[in-house]
């Protein structure tokens, strides 16, 4: 995936129902939980050499889960001599035997840090620690029949490796109001000046629950005076109109590095040509 000016990751939950799944709370764990806890991992019983290795261009299946079930936690610790390996390693997830992935995102961007960079993140669904080396996702990802997770090293020069754990719950039956998790990557180079940049176009009933926006700014400073617009169900006039890009990420008067439950700015380089920025907003409390 080539060097870009603007990149975004859009995260949605789609199904025939329109209700968010309830995540674990301190109160809920005082009651009996459904299902059986399971894990797919790179671990072995013999030694500590328990990571998966990826040649340039290689794809490996990390997990092929038989449902019904739900993924509750994903952990990665990747490494490579390619310093931009978080952009070169691409995560894909396929639900229920589909041939087209519902998740197709570079690893770093999925975990809220774009441009192939590394940074810590401390949000509700995404946690990155160890100076950007330990990736954790707590997004709930239910499936009715199966889930296949792959990782591809799209570098054409350097090999890579990754430890991983995928925690999931095997259920007796799929929920009637099952909602599938989707995450899509989109980039544009160069974006058209004074024209809206399209973050996401989707069809179906569901919720839009998150955005990760990354940029490399040739103008040498933050570009964020563009407003956000949400056009829902084919409408010509947007139902939701914002007041500026940093305002969408719940910031004010420019951006600065921080990380919180629902919003954050994980990368904000000093003002200079090609400065890089990454920011996230999770619509968990306010799904669209």
CATH class wording: Mainly Beta
CATH architecture assignment name? Sandwich
> What helical percentage do the residues reach?
under 10%
| Distance separating the two termini | 29 Å
Number of strands: 20
Major sheet: size, sense and barrel closure?
A: 10 strands, mixed
Order of strands across the main sheet: 4-12-6-7-14-1-15-20-19-18
What is the assigned CATH homologous superfamily?
Protein of unknown function DUF2961
Order of helices and strands: EEEEEHEEHEEEEEEEEEEHEEE
Gross geometry: globular
Mean pLDDT: 90
Please give the radius of gyration in angstroms.
19 Å
> How many helix segments?
3
- What is the count of distinct domains? 1
Q: Output the CATH topology.
A: Jelly Rolls
Describe the 3D structure:
It contains three helices and 20 strands. It is mainly beta and 288 residues long. It has one domain: Jelly Rolls (Sandwich), CATH 2.60.120. It has a ten-stranded mixed sheet. Strands 2, 3, 5, 8, 9, 10, 11 and 13 form an eight-stranded antiparallel sheet that branches. Strands 16-17 form a two-stranded antiparallel sheet. The protein is globular and about 55 Å long. It starts with 5 loop residues before the first strand and ends in a 6-residue tail after the last strand.
């Amino acid at each position: 995936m080539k060097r870009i000016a603007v990149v975004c990751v859009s995260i949605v939950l789609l199904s025939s129902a329109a209700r968010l799944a309830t995540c674990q709370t301190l109160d809920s764990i005082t009651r009996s939980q459904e299902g059986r806890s399971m894990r797919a991992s790179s671990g072995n019983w013999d030694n500590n050499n328990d990571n998966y290795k990826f040649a340039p261009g290689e794809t490996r299946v990390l997990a092929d889960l038989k449902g019904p079930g739900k993924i509750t936690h994903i952990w990665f610790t990747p490494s490579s001599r390619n310093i931009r390996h978080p952009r070169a390693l691409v995560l894909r997830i396929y639900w229920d035997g589909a041939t087209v992935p519902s998740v197709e995102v570079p690893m770093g961007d999925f975990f809220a840090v774009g441009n192939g960079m590394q940074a810590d993140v401390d949000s509700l669904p995404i946690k990155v620690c160890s100076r950007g080396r330990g990736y954790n996702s707590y997004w709930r990802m239910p499936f009715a029949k199966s889930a296949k997770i792959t990782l591809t090293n799209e570098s054409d020069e350097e090999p890579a490796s990754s430890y991983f754990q995928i925690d999931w719950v095997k259920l007796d039956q799929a929920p009637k109001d099952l909602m599938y998790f989707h995450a899509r990557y989109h980039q544009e180079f160069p974006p058209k000046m004074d024209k809206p940049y399209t973050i996401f176009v989707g069809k179906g009933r569901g919720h839009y629950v998150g955005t990760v926006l990354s940029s490399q700014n040739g103008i040498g400073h933050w570009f964020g005076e563009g407003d956000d617009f949400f056009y829902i169900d084919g409408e010509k006039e947007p139902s939701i109109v914002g007041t500026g890009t940093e305002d969408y990420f719940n910031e004010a008067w420019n951006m600065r590095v921080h990380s919180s439950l629902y919003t954050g700015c994980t990368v904000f380089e000093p003002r200079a040509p090609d400065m890089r920025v990454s920011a996230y907003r999770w619509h968990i409390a306010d799904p669209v």
